[in-house]
Amino acid sequence: MGSPTKDATPHRTNLLTPGREPDSPLPPIHERLAYLRPSRELLEFYRQKIAQFDGEHEELLQMLEKYKGITEDQHKLQWEVRQREGEIAELQNALSDMQVYLFQEREQELEDRKKIQHLLALVGPDSGEITYFHREPPHKVEALQAQMEEQTRLVREQVESLMEDRQIKTEEAQAQRQKDQERISALTDKLQRTQNLLYESTRDFLQLKFDARAQEKSWMSEKDRLLRELDSSHNRLRKTLSAGAELGPKWQPSSSTALLLPRPQPELKQSLKEELKAMQEDVKQAHRLAEMYRGQCITLETELSQIREEGDVGREIFKERSDKMAKRLQLMTQRYEALEKRRAMEVEGFKTDLKHLRQKFKDVEKQLLKVTLNVGPNQDLAILHEVRQTSGRTKKVQGELMALKAKIYGLENELRFS
């Protein structure tokens, strides 16, 4: 059913009123209302519009509940992402602690060996347990032992300083991570409160709009009742006047139509005039109410169009944010899986390095045993040469370990700042 304004008859010329803007393509509200007259079709049209508004109100409430559920799921996903980030940080710390424990275990093993040798030297071996590998007395390698002890002490001091630097950097990173985590939690809580406030304000707005439409519906029913009373009064008056004209001067009105017909008595004329004046006032009042209702309907339609535009913009923004959060969650999941695989490979690599180092250590012991069994005039020089080669290999292995640690720290920094 189209708009009933096509049956309305204009009774005002299309002039430029003071309330109309020169640049606006639409005429002002008063000029648009001037072309409308109360009719059955207009009432039916507004009844259908109100029913349509009620359906849109229900749809908006359902969409609002749906968006609330989506935002709650989004907060849950963000919370799970933060938990996974915390687990990743704990795994990184555990990996670093494992490296530290491995190094400390190696140092403890070296210290235990030194203590065992020192105790054996103090106690003295049994005569049956003595096995000589050197023809020369053992005091000839004291300089070499002192050099090795000096190098060991320097390496230990260097490692201790590096461990202290690592501890300081770890504490600073932990403090920064804690601050970032608190800030993220505060911002997330603020976002959730804002979304809840938006939900409550939207729900209150929809409720107020629904109440306004209910009030408008009551006004329309009252207007319909007044129009029916007006039509019935006009019909009765018209029938009474036509009956009086047909009967002529001999017609005598009945008691029920006495108030609607003119009589020769002045008091009856006065009462009829008063009743007609009251009916005219009722008609004017009905016209004023109709114009007021039309103005309110046009205002509500304008507000509804604005609300729809705002709702479309809000839906677009929410959809964009949801897509960004989904992509970020997928990226974090992929990083987490890659980090798990890398950690497993690094653990396997550490085990392989330990196995290789133990094998190299055994090979060095065997070579030392062979060197001590060889007899020759340049025995000390050969031992010194072998020790230098062993020291070079040890430095090379230490360099590889330091490079591996640097790679691990680089990966931790990438994960921390990504």
From TrEMBL:
The entry's keywords: Coiled coil
Keyword Coiled coil: yes
Coiled coil: 141-197, 269-374
Coiled coil as UniProt keyword: yes
Highest taxon in the source lineage: Eukaryota
One GO term describing the cellular component: centrosome
InterPro entries, per the entry: CCDC77
Annotated spans, Disordered: 1-27
Protein name, as recorded: Coiled-coil domain containing 77
Record organism: Dissostichus mawsoni
